[in-house]
Amino acid sequence: MSCSIAHPRPARPLGDRLLFLARWLRNPRAIASITPSGSALAALITREIDRGPVLELGSGTGAFVPALLTRGIRERDLVLVERDAPLAVRLSQRWPDATVIASDAARFEDGTRFAATVCGLGLLNMPVPTVEAILRAAFARMQPGAHFYLFTYGRRCSVGDATLDRLDLSARRVGRTWRNLPPATVFCLSRRAEVVG
């Protein structure tokens, strides 16, 4: 039996940037950046992911999807959660074999057990209880040993130590890329019991 890896569809950088900017102007707190993430950040945040299914929270225009496909993750093994309706429609059109859910990241419905989660949400713009609800929802749907990847434009993890302690999670710095606008740092969150054990 032969197996082929789907090649990423061509990017539409100008259209994505304009849509992202329009959505940001409409609601800056909901859309944490005025531009989609770049390919360097996409490669960094996905570089440790080698199997699916993968959950992506705050998918935006799907900037991380080509990097996941390049890593060998099948499009049908992607669940993309995006609350903003116009962005969710674009995701559905661009990635028809993926599951696109137009919902809040803490309240979406899907029965999949994920091997990894990639988060594109602006967690620093959210109240701590919201961040904790998102993390609880994601980890409840993740397989044992699965990791949660997020990025921040600062140098410190956007999930604070007190939140990590309450949820019994640990944060590890994966790396930083200067080839993103703005430069970004990627962190990996894991359940502490699994890191120790």
TrEMBL record:
Keyword Transferase: yes
Protein name: Phospholipid N-methyltransferase
Entry keyword Methyltransferase: yes
Position of the signal peptide: none
Domain of life: Bacteria
GO MF, any single term: methyltransferase activity
Biological processes per GO annotation: methylation
Source taxonomy: Bacteria, Pseudomonadati, Pseudomonadota, Alphaproteobacteria, Sphingomonadales
Keywords linked to the UniProt accession: Methyltransferase, Transferase
